[in-house]
Specification:
Layout: H1 9-19, H2 23-39, H3 41-45, E1 51-53, E2 56-59, H4 64-72, H5 74-85, E3 92-95
Parallel strand pairs: 2-3
Antiparallel strand pairs: 1-2
Helix pairs in contact: 2-5
Length: 96
């Protein structure tokens, strides 16, 4: 038996993800992972894992000074995350 249509696993997975319309949610998951890279491991360890829904990323922080610092840099953090991802995924950043 001869195979005529040979495709890589990556191509097949990419097509399956696009057909099931999961690309938006995967981008949101990547944005959550990128937050730790953008702020650095020390600050990321003091924050809960970010959650994101419909472009709104929520980060829980226990310490008030850190919360204020992140809130002051909100726009630059969103810009850095979106630049790293290569598209606009985070439209709003909430620090609670």
């Amino acid at each position: 038996m001869e195979r005529k249509n040979i495709e890589s696993i990556g191509d097949v997975l990419r097509m399956a993800i696009e057909e099931s319309r999961m690309t938006g949610r995967l981008d949101e998951c990547r944005a959550c992972d990128t937050f730790a890279v953008v702020v650095g491991p020390d600050l990321a360890s003091q924050c809960a894992r970010p959650q994101i829904r419909k472009g709104v990323m929520t980060v829980k922080v226990q310490r008030a000074p850190l919360r204020q610092e992140l809130a002051m840099h909100r726009s630059s953090l969103m810009r850095a995350i979106n630049t790293t991802l290569g598209k606009t995924v985070v439209t709003e950043l909430r620090i609670i």
